[in-house]
Amino acid sequence: MVEALPAEGVPADQIMAELRDLRTADLPTHGGRLFAYVYDPALPGLDELATAAYALSAHVNGLDPTAFPSLLTMENALVGAASRLLGGGPGTAAPDVVGSVTGGGTESLILAVKAARDARPEVTRPRLVVPATGHAAFAKAAHYLGVALDQVPVSAETLRPSVDDVRAAIGPETVLVACSAPSYAHGVVDPVAEIAEIAAMAGVRCHVDACFGGWVLPYLRRLGVPVPPFDFTLPGVTSISVDLHKYAYTLKGVSVLLHRDAAARRSQYFAFAGWPGYTMVNPVISSTRSGGPIAAAYATLRHVGDDGYLRLAEQTLAGVRGIAAAVSGVDGLRLLAEPESTVVCFTRTDSGPDLFVLADELAGRGWHCQPQLSYAGLPASIHLSVTAAVAPRVPEFGPDLRASAEAARQAGPVRLPAEVLALAGALTPELLTPELVAGLAAGLGLGAAPGESSGDAGGPAGDGGASGPLPVRMALVNTLLDAVPLALRERLLAEFLGLLQRPTY
User: Fold this and answer.
1) Which residues form the domain of 480?
2) Each residue's pLDDT tens digit, 389-416
3) Which parts of the chain are coiled coil (predicted)?
4) Do residues 491 and 426 both lie within one domain?
5) Which of 34, 184, 394, 463 is the most exposed place for a label (fewest CB within 10 A)?
6) What is the pLDDT of residues 12-53, one digit of tens each?
7) Are residues 11 and 139 in the same domain?
């Protein structure tokens, strides 16, 4: 049992041994075999540099930049680098771009929605227009901020929204239109130029969620990939988010939110003087922030450099093409979309193997992918985020994918027990009780004993190889989640997570 506050202090070497032992249950963060959650450039010495820089500034507090100007200097440098990469800065069509460093993509998107909402105080019922493939963080932002979410459907063939549908969704209460470059699930770049033009004509802000691809798409374009315009070179784009802890390969969690000018950013800030303490003014959601991630990001960018990122993009592109070719070479599998960025997303043909069983088979061979459930006419799929570390692994992946597909075909699809299907069909979120959820979880192998915890906050569908109280094989769980309505799916996952997150005593 893990105890955080023992009666007497524990020696440092024993604690480090305990931490190393706990880490053995985690998925591998390096080596090119994990296709989600982490981003590995496979650059010797980079981890050591980043962690040393992190430690140097770990106790620096981003709450007050006048007290710690080193952090302000580094943040401004990171914002400047992101701006230049994305079409802003001196000598461009967007010379006045400003920005803020946030703790991650979700925080960047929440702040983009907040800035758009607060810039239109006359709108009493603000609305956000976003393609259905927009990141779930937009829904989180809308929920937190009291903004209505208008999701525009996407084509099952192109995985993009119709420009006419986006235009029709914009109304007098729309405060922000958003699009993706690329969408996380499928790696497809939305028609940003057309959407930004529509938004500008309507007098509405347009945010481009480039959290996933913003740091790599410009380099892929330099390598000859036909990347469509998506950045500040488009006059209708008013803000962009880009995560440095993805394809800039910095430590978690560093993202940058850019605005076309200072006036657009002003409504992002929060200030409050109505209490007897210090006047609070925050550019981001957090007040106290460790300088560690920012210092690590600064060190990483300076060490890798522009030429280094171009080489990493070239390696990643080779990995994408190799993985896509391996998928296309397996009977019963097909690419859901031709890769446009760093994502390989595939599904099954009518005669193909069960994808959830396939994900388990891949995990059993050391390849950890991200199953995605079906949604609104889009089939279930498997998402692979490809990094520079994947390219050398391609010759190993192809044979293992073929073997996994054959094993999944031999095993056949998952069959849910009739009683489980009947129960799932009769349930609504309101009918779920803690006892019912606990019993269902135990039946699926998800029942952690009191005081235990394990798993991933992304939910069962996001992990093909969890350990501890979670079952190693997740096909049964994913099949159940795929079969139930969306509202019930959400509630089940939230309740399952609640079972896992319990204190140890």
Assistant:
1) 1-30+416-505
2) 999 999 999 999 999 999 999 999 988 8
3) none
4) yes
5) 394
6) 999 999 999 999 989 999 999 999 999 999 999 999 999 999
7) no
